[in-house]
Design goal:
Blueprint (H helix, E strand, L loop, with lengths): L13 H12 L13 E10 L4 E10 L4 E11 L10 H13 L7 E4 L12 H9 L3 E5 L17 E6 L2 E7 L8 E5 L5 H11 L7 H18 L8
Helix pairs in contact: 2-3
The protein binds 2 DNA strands through strand 1.
DNA sequence: GCGACAG
DNA sequence: ATCTTGTCGC
């Protein structure tokens, strides 16, 4: 089982969450990710019961064989509403519960959310990295904060994402002619590594394979929890 | 006060 | 995120 750090009590209110983000922001380490990574994990969550519970899912993707080598899911009751900028407090508990069941330790983890590209430089990808103590990359499908110029239309094109005068990530085109994704460092990673890793993890779709696999995992699992087809009753 | 706002 | 039908295109 993967070891998770125990940093403090989980906040129960928005103000407590914001204060915690400010405190933890100082602990995020931005550094290059060296070596050729092979085991890349993807994390995602789906919601059940009209948002009353969250289903977290993690897959470990072998980049060389292009296969899922391990996966795990966990269903947890939601204790926090969705508030832009505070996504962590709604989703992270479910993700951590899934990681806790994981046997392998991935070399890098991709989160379907922002990392540094956050108003307080503490997006879900950063939090996840602090708990796992593993390099993490934030790869979001839409913008939360920051500005950027126009980028080329070919795969690999990228422009800096800037917020309040500092680069917090990049807008990266993962497929030619397809809408770009917003990449930012989580923990133990830097902007350049985040982009390089994201491109390496993306084969033929807009989002990196690990995230896509994790998304399908939680979607499938949720369907199994809800549906009760007559022909499968045991 | 007004608009923006990851999943 | 979730709800939700058909439709256009490789």
């Amino acid at each position: 089982m993967m070891k998770l750090a125990r940093l403090h009590a989980w906040p129960r209110t928005a103000t407590a969450g914001v204060q915690l983000q400010h405190r933890l922001a100082m602990r995020v380490v931005l550094q290059p990710v060296t070596g050729r990574t092979r085991l890349m994990a993807g994390a995602d969550a789906a919601f059940c019961d009209n948002g009353a519970s969250a289903l977290g899912g993690v897959v470990v993707w072998d980049r060389l064989t292009q296969t899922v080598v391990e996966q795990s899911t966990a269903r947890v009751a939601c204790r926090f509403p969705y508030i832009p900028g505070l996504l962590t407090f709604r989703e992270l508990p479910a993700l951590l519960a899934a990681f806790r069941k994981l046997r392998m330790t991935p070399e890098v983890v991709f989160a379907d959310a922002h990392g540094l590209a956050h108003p307080r430089r503490m997006g879900l990808a950063c939090m996840l990295g602090l708990w796992l103590n593993v390099p993490t990359v934030g790869c979001a499908k839409s913008l939360l904060c920051g500005e950027h110029g126009t980028l080329g239309r070919r795969r690999g094109s990228a422009v800096p994402l800037v917020h309040k005068g500092e680069q917090v990530g990049a807008v990266l085109r993962t497929q030619s002619g397809v809408k770009p994704v917003y990449v930012s460092p989580g923990h133990l990673c830097d902007c350049e590594s985040a982009c390089r890793l994201t491109l390496a993890a993306t084969s033929k779709y807009r989002v990196p394979d690990p995230i896509r696999q994790a998304h399908q995992l939680v979607t499938r699992t949720k369907a199994l929890l809800v549906e009760r087809p007559r022909h499968t009753i045991s």
